[in-house]
From TrEMBL:
GO MF terms held by the record: alcohol dehydrogenase (NAD+) activity; S-(hydroxymethyl)glutathione dehydrogenase [NAD(P)+] activity; zinc ion binding
PROSITE patterns: ADH_ZINC (PS00059)
Record Pfam families: ADH_N (PF08240), ADH_zinc_N (PF00107)
Family note: Belongs to the zinc-containing alcohol dehydrogenase family.
InterPro entries: ADH-like_C, ADH-like_N, ADH_Zn_CS, ER, GroES-like_sf, NAD(P)-bd_dom_sf
Domain Enoyl reductase (ER) span(s) in chain numbering: 17-376
Protein's name in the database: Alcohol dehydrogenase 1-like
Assigned keywords, A-Z: Metal-binding, NAD, Oxidoreductase, Zinc
UniProt entry tagged with the keyword NAD: yes
Cofactors that this protein relies on: Zn(2+)
CC per GO annotation: cytosol
Gene that this polypeptide is encoded by: LOC107747568
NAD keyword on record: yes
Length: 393
């Protein structure tokens, strides 16, 4: 492409400081270096982890930054040493890398990668090395991706090449939330046919967890949330029973125990709330119950009574649903294209990059219509040009 080897100036939503609106800026995106890929971002979702960094984590060392980590796009150019990608390839950036060489990548028991930004910089959620500048200042690349920009530069170990026919404004959701919730059920929890499950929190991650439980063959799936307006959406993904903890004068773990003869076989916490994490564990049946922590948080400690584990329960955590990223995301794209998993049903709004603060506010305020995923198109498009939907550029 004509831009290969040159600095690209483009639009990006910059978070200059914690707890403040994002600012639309013109940034400079440097050419890719050794082993790197520069990507034209076509679509991106808004994930709660973006909000966590902006409003909850508040570590000022993680700013200024460009947020966004659920994206999909097209390769614009590649740096020296890159042989598996070429300009024009459709790709999904990955916040969790897969180098293929470290001890974690070589171990089938985990999807961690020692070369990921999270191995050293999870507290600021960015590697200090960046290809972004704005007004002469370096701008961090959030979770190594920064998809709230028209262009981004990413190490090849954190990019997945996907099918040429994949609709980017759908499969971008596989960059985080949907893969995370779905995989937490089918991989980390290991939901079994005929089992009884409970999913706590019905945002996009929780709904994906419900879908995972359903696809794994669970016979009964409890959807737990304090907002009952989310229950209809959960039913679409396979939930069979619905509980609002505020509707009872006893702990919801006790309610579940009464309804299931002692507790559920599998529970998944998809909120990022330490109190809910404990409740999810206590909702499991003793002897073999498995509870999985899926929601992201690092600002509070959690606790439980030892007897919960001594009695045979298992407490586990799940990052990116246990999927080895580069290997698994292309397969998940194919699963969507063949109808095995849903993606369209997660999208609640389609907005332009300039509307990113509106998208964040929809998620932040808990508008039930916005509990799925807000889809943002960084690239200018004609209204309805690509999908027939009202896509504003």
């Amino acid at each position: 492409m004509a831009t290969a080897g040159k600095v690209i100036k483009c639009r990006a939503a910059v978070a200059w400081e914690p707890n403040a609106p994002l600012m639309m800026e013109e940034i400079e995106v440097a050419p890719p270096q050794e082993g790197e890929i520069r990507i034209k971002v076509v679509a991106t979702g808004v994930c709660h982890t973006d909000l966590y960094h902006l409003f909850e984590g508040k570590d000022k060392r993680g700013f200024p930054t460009v947020l966004g980590h659920e994206g999909a796009g097209v390769v614009e150019s590649v740096g020296p040493g890159v042989t598996d990608f070429k300009p024009g390839d459709k790709v999904i950036p990955l916040f969790l890398s897969q180098c293929g060489e470290c001890k974690f990548c070589k171990c089938p028991k985990t999807n961690l990668c020692d070369c990921s930004w999270s191995s050293k910089y999870y507290d600021i959620m960015s590697d200090p090395t960046t290809r972004f500048t704005c007004h002469g200042r370096p701008i961090l690349q959030f979770m190594g991706t920064s998809t709230f920009s028209e262009y981004t530069v990413i190490n090849q170990i954190a990019v997945a090449k996907i099918h040429d026919d994949a609709p980017l404004d759908r499969v971008c959701l596989l960059g985080c939330g949907i893969s995370t919730g779905y995989g937490a059920a089918v991989n980390t929890a290991g939901v079994t046919p005929g089992s009884v499950c409970a999913v706590f929190g019905l945002g996009a991650v929780g709904l994906a967890a419900v879908m995972g439980c359903k696809n794994a063959g669970a016979s009964r799936i409890f959807a737990v949330d304090i907002n009952e307006q989310k229950f209809e959406k959960a039913k679409v993904f396979g939930a069979t029973d619905f509980l609002n903890p505020k509707a009872y004068n006893k702990p919801i773990s006790e309610v579940l125990a009464e309804l299931t003869n002692g507790g559920v076989d599998f529970s998944l916490e998809c909120v990022g709330n330490t109190e809910v994490m404990r409740t999810a564990l206590e909702s499991c049946v003793k002897g073999w119950g498995v509870s999985v922590l899926v929601g992201w948080t690092d600002v509070k400690d959690f606790s439980a009574k030892p007897i919960q584990l001594i009695s045979g329960k298992t407490w586990k955590g799940s990052l990116f649903g246990g999927f080895k990223s580069k290997d698994s995301v292309p397969n998940l794209v194919c699963d969507y294209m063949t109808g095995k998993i849903k993606l369209d049903e997660f999208i609640t709004h389609k907005m332009s990059l300039e509307q990113v603060n509106d998208a964040i506010n929809l998620m932040k305020t808990g508008d039930w219509h916005a509990q799925g995923t807000r889809l943002i198109r960084p690239q200018r498009v004609m209204i309805g040009r690509q999908t027939g939907s009202n896509l504003i550029g």
